[in-house]
Amino acid sequence: MTTDPVPLGESAPRDLIVTLFGLYSRGENNWLPVSALVRLMEELGIDGPAVRSSVSRLKRRGVLLGVRREATAGYELSPATLQVLTEGDTRIFRRVRSTLADGWLLLTFSIPESERDKRHALRTALSGLGFGTVSPGVWIAPAALESETKTMLDRKGLRDYVELFAGHHLGFEDLRSRVQRWWDLDQITLSYADFVRRHRRLTSVDVADAAAAFAAYVPMLTAWRVLPYLDPGLPLEVLPAGWNGQVAEELFGELNDRLSAPAREFALDVLHGSAASGPLTTR
Fold first, then answer.
1. How far is CA 186 from CA 172, 193, 199, 237, 257, in A?
2. Which whole-number Å values give the CA distances from 198 to 9, 10, 120, 216, 226, in the listed order?
3. DSSP label at residue 11
4. How many CB atoms are located within 10 Å of the residue 145 CB?
5. Residue 168 · residue 104 · CB < 8 Å
6. Which of 90, 98, 246, 259 could staple 102 via S-S, CB 3.0–4.6 A?
7. Is residue 168 classed as helix, strand or coil in its secondary structure?
8. Which CATH class is domain 104-167?
9. Where do the structural domains in the chain lie, given as residue ranges?
10. What's the first-to-final CA gap in the chain, in angstroms?
11. Cβ neighbours of residue 206 closer than 8 Å, sequence gap 6 or more
């Protein structure tokens, strides 16, 4: 779930839409009717014109496809987006934080000037996976990202330009100070703090109220799904003392456990009710 998310502040409607499809369309043959999408977004405080505008942008970018099933208008995730969301499930919901003993993944690349578009695509993709920058041609990440990185390189046709190495830091500068240089830890810290500040109150949401659980859960997950890509599970040994990422991870786990089931119950009630309500046209 990594389609241009908004890391701080309120989530953009397009990011909420991607979250809805990631959560609820994949179990429904990768499709949501227009009526259900509009109804669910209304519950999140987004009106119809904003939904239509956001869907249009997502369709232009190849994230969503307009598909009619029987007489009902709806949308499905494109195959490429479906693959990206599936790959992201582990990172978002089941990330394991690395330790120094796990080691590091180093990536080097050499791309000729005549193919500078591929160089830009690779740098963008590595940043999106949470790699840190050692130097312009050398990137680093926890070793646990090996499989995910190989999958991305294959999907984008970039593996012929890249060499991967696994190893451990042997010297000479203190690794904690190096990590401060390779990743923007100040920004990551602010992002975690913002997540905790905005979502700590959701621990008191009444889970017996499925609509309230839904309205709390989807924006919370939309905000969270950015963070495991900013911080790719960096070892605590090299992070600042009292790293607030742990607090944010624990809060997300608690909220996900409390809110996901009633939120899903509400969403599927809307989805099935909308699907049964007859045709709906949209521009």
1. 24, 11, 20, 17, 29
2. 9, 10, 34, 11, 15
3. P
4. 22
5. yes
6. 98
7. coil
8. alpha beta
9. 104-167, 184-266
10. 26
11. 212, 213
Q: Which two tokens stand for residue 202?
A: 């959701």
Strand 104-109 to 132-135 pairing:
unpaired
Q: Which residue type is seen at 210?
A: A
Q: Are the beta carbons of 201 and 69 closer than 8 angstroms?
A: no
* 70 has pLDDT over 90: no
How far is Cα 249 from Cα 253, in angstroms, rounded to an integer? 6
pTM over 0.85: yes
Dihedral of alpha carbons 83, 194, 246, 132, sign: positive
In this structure, the dihedral spanned by the alpha carbons of residues 66, 10, 248 and 23, taken in order and rounded to 10 degrees, is -20
Q: What is the pLDDT of residues 188-247, one digit of tens each?
A: 999 999 999 999 999 999 999 999 999 999 999 999 999 999 999 999 999 988 899 999
Structure tokens at 82: 């479906």
- State the pairing for strand pair 162-167/138-142: unpaired
Could you report the per-residue pLDDT of 177-203, keeping only the tens digit for each?
999 999 999 999 999 999 999 999 999
Burial level of 215, CB count in 10 A (0-12/13-18/19+)?
buried
